[in-house]
Amino acid sequence: MTHLVYLYVHDTMSDWEHAYLLPEIVSGRFLSSQDQRYQLRLCGRTMNSITTMGGIRLVPEMTIEDIKPTPDSVLILVGSNTWMDPVQDQVLAKVRDLLRTEITIGAICGATIGLARAGLLNNRPHTSNDLAVLKEYCPEYIGDAYYLSKPAVTDKNLITASGLAAVEFAYEVMKKMGVMRKATLEAWYHLYLHKKPEYFYQLMESLKD
Question: How many Å apart are CA 164 and CA 150, to the nearest integer?
Answer without folding.
Answer: 11
